[in-house]
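Please decode residue identities from the backbone states below.
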């Protein structure tokens, strides 16, 4: 959900047009949106305009009986958006002025930047269309230099920004304490400074300031705004440096820091197990404790399992499971996993490769692709998955879809089931498939038995996985069974699955596990 927050005061001539332009943007760029407007005690026909548009648009109007000011109105809108969301990592808010100086069409690029991983996007307005008094142009040029907010943002006072709501939640943890304590241009900079302290990634986009579309004289008083900016420098600097000072204080005090939304755990090595009320001064040779975080994906790079495919007594193809290497996706260290199968009989032929890039330290999918040629038909699907933001995007479709907190895909599931405890006779359900409509994934532990593959006899655990409405080997109609070695490695020994022409069994022929001796 995108919440477009619009503070309004005496904008009857333009606010309706701005709302309609917002509608056009999100009709062409298909996204779910709501407009939240705050009528700050307007004395013109603004209230009537808002009432009429509320009948035809997803619009909520907050009404102030007395003038509260721009900063108070803006903060109230943002807090209302935060209260409404149930997915703050995925949902976002956009601050937009009602006088048409902000170009609504820029919102498409701003939202795309958020969907690509940014937490805060600022539309800088150094390109201006239309005439303004020289005093306003001069003050508008110098005020951002007084109100620096960091993060590569130069135009700190534009007031046109998009933010992930989880960042706003972190910035408002003080409860009812005001988020904004300044007014006017300084309030725009203060908002960026307070949000930027919690944003992992800040990006800027260029947007033309449309002074040529304004229907009224500017209310800005350049010299007063410039003086207010000068007086607000300390507050903006303190807001911007707040998090940095906290980090320094924690490090100096020996405290631990946790990354935003991390699910990794570790063990501190070198800390004393004894407790004492008195803390001795550190020795000259003391070192800072080292945090060792074991990977959640325990499989070594280079692990390769090779299978032969059989249809009855006939050899019909081959398959491989392989840990390809360590990669970086969305600034996250991932393990690249690949499963391929190739073969066929008579009129039927199948070539399929599914690949997964899964977080090395949290075992959550970041990227998934499936390329398949079956009976002369080519199918190709590629997905980018953002678990911290709660959405995924399919290549070729200009929209996003909600995902689960700890998403997995077809390829990563094949590896993940090798890591979970399994008890014969139990049925497990996991709401971890990255497409929520196909959850829960069902895993039944059928039995234990001995099998002969790859030139030796193994003790094996037999499991039956199913993905509701899924395709491929995990589809319910496939009735797939998987044999896992009953040892710490949990190697995939065999996979049996139904195809349109009959049942195919993949049996392990060769395996390479770096660092593990083989018979």
């Amino acid at each position: 959900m995108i919440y477009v927050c619009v503070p309004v005061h005496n904008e009857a001539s333009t606010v309706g047009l701005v709302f309609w332009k917002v509608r056009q943007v999100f009709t062409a760029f298909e996204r779910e949106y709501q407009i939240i407007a705050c009528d700050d005690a307007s004395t013109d026909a603004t209230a009537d305009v808002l009432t009429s548009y509320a009948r035809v648009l997803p619009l909520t109007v907050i009404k102030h009986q007395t003038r509260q000011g721009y900063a108070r109105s803006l903060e109230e809108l943002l807090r209302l958006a935060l209260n409404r969301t149930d997915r703050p990592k995925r949902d976002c808010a956009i601050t937009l002025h009602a006088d048409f100086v902000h170009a609504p069409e820029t919102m498409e690029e701003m939202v795309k930047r958020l969907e690509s991983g940014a937490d805060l996007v600022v539309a800088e307005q150094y390109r201006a269309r239309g005439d303004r008094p020289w005093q306003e142009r001069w003050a508008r040029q110098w005020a951002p230099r007084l109100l620096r907010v960091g993060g590569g943002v130069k135009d700190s006072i534009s007031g046109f920004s998009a933010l992930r709501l989880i960042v706003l939640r972190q910035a408002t943890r003080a409860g009812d304490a005001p988020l904004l304590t300044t007014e006017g241009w300084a309030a725009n900079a203060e908002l960026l400074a307070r949000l930027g302290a919690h944003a992992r990634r800040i990006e800027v986009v260029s947007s033309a300031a449309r002074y040529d579309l304004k229907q009224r004289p500017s209310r800005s008083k350049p010299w007063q705004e410039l003086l207010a900016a000068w007086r607000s420098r300390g507050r903006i600097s303190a807001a911007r440096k707040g998090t940095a000072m906290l980090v320094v204080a924690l490090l100096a005090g020996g405290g631990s820091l946790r990354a935003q939304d991390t699910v990794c755990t570790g063990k501190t090595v070198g800390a004393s197990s004894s407790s004492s009320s008195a803390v001795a001064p550190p020795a000259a040779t003391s070192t800072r404790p080292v945090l060792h975080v074991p990977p959640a994906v325990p499989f070594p790079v280079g692990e390769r399992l090779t299978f032969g495919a059989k249809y009855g007594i006939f050899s019909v193809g081959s398959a491989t499971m392989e840990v390809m290497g360590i990669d970086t996706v969305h600034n996250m260290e991932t393990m690249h996993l690949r499963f391929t199968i190739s073969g066929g009989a008579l009129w039927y032929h199948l070539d399929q490769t599914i690949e997964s890039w899964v977080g090395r330290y949290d075992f959550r999918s970041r990227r998934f692709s499936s390329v398949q040629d079956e009976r002369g038909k080519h199918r190709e699907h590629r997905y980018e998955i953002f678990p911290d933001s709660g959405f995924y995007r399919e290549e070729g479709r200009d929209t996003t879809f909600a995902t689960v907190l700890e998403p997995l895909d077809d390829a990563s599931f094949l590896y993940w089931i090798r890591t979970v405890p399994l008890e014969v006779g139990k049925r497990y359900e996991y709401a971890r498939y990255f497409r929520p409509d196909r959850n829960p994934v069902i895993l039944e532990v059928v039995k234990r038995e001995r099998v002969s593959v790859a030139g030796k006899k193994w003790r094996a655990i037999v499991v039956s996985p199913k993905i509701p409405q899924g395709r491929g080997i995990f589809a319910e109609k496939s009735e797939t069974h998987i044999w896992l070695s009953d040892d710490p490695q949990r190697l995939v020994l065999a996979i049996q699955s139904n195809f349109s022409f009959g049942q195919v069994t993949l049996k392990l022929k060769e395996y390479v596990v770096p660092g593990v001796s083989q018979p």
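Observation: Residues 12 and 46 are 4 Å apart (CA to CA).
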